[in-house]
Amino acid sequence: SSRMAKSKFEYVRNFETDDTCLKNCYIVVRLDGRNFHKFAEQHNFMKPNDDRALGLMTCSARSVMEDLDDIIISYGQSDEFSFVFKRTSNWFKRRASKLMTHVASQFSSSYVFYWKDYFGDQPLLYPPGFDGRVVLYPSNRNLRDYLSWRQADCHVNNLYNTVFWTLVQKGGLTTTQAEDRLKGTLAADKNEIMFSEFDINYNKEPLVHRKGTTLIWEKLEETVTKSVKLPNEAGEEVLVTRTRRRVSAHHCDVIGNQFWEEHPNILED
Ligand code: ATP
Ligand code: ATP
Ligand code: MG
Ligand code: MG
Ligand code: MG
Ligand code: MG
User: Which residues contact 238 (CB under 8 A, 6 or more apart)?
Assistant: First the structure.
């Protein structure tokens, strides 16, 4: 700090490398749970989708958006969450390592902090970790394609996992038998297995599982009464409108145009 006299050791700061993110690009930080396949088993996650775990992921992502600056949208599924910083953000001078580590640590500490709100008495057996990476996207199309890619991944995995665990849980197959049964099958085949053998219409499965979770800022017009008191006068009640913003969760398609047309202010020009 400025109070400290420069020491002869000071030169080592110059070993730090410049990781400033290119201007004008969306900065995406994606986190992914470390070894969550095992973590899920040890904490008795329901298969294929544990709603407590999904709720905790979303709650932690919400805390990241509320406590850090300049995140305009985030998208999560399974043990991953992506956070998009606005193009013009100058938070931490756009230093990639600062942005990424703040996101990862805020997320991880929230995951632990809010654990009991979602898992109740079931103990957290060890401290979970999340890896992070930074990717820059120069155009709205690239950013949309990035989010579409993550949502397509959610769909492919969830379709597979849903039919796989249906074969095991309802069909009485072993995991190896279920795996063999699904080898080489296309999406249509999987839908057909569920429909004809188990009477399950995949398209009626919960949206949160099929589409993942998108968090955006929502503006709220709020009217409040405020009492104003001038000196030597009786108090007066006045109506004041103010806009607050809060994070809202959506489980909808983000690949098509509809979501973006309904929320035209998320992406910048
Ligand atoms: P930034 O987010 O930029 O790092 P900061 O407030 O964390 O801001 P630092 O330069 O990292 O600033 O300084 C950490 C501060 O935290 C110290 O100046 C001190 O006030 C406080 N602090 C940290 N550890 C201790 C401790 N063990 N005992 C007392 N105070 C502490
Ligand atoms: P890595 O450390 O390489 O990321 P990983 O074991 O975390 O390894 P992923 O590809 O990230 O592997 O997969 C995450 C796994 O966590 C899923 O395959 C699933 O087993 C489990 N999982 C995550 N979230 C849930 C959930 N909500 N419900 C059930 N299982 C989940
Ligand atoms: Mg992985
Ligand atoms: Mg993982
Ligand atoms: Mg993952
Ligand atoms: Mg500090």
Answer: 225, 226, 227, 228
Task: Return the CATH number of 15-152, one of 3.30.70.3000, 3.30.930.10, 3.40.50.2300, 2.60.120.10.
Answer: 3.30.70.3000
Ligand 2 contacts (CB < 6 A) are 32-37, 40, 45, 49-50, 53-54, 78-79
Is the complex ipTM more than 0.90?
A: yes
User: What pLDDT digit, counting tens, does each position of 134-193 carry?
Assistant: 999 999 999 999 999 999 999 999 999 999 999 999 999 999 999 999 999 999 999 999
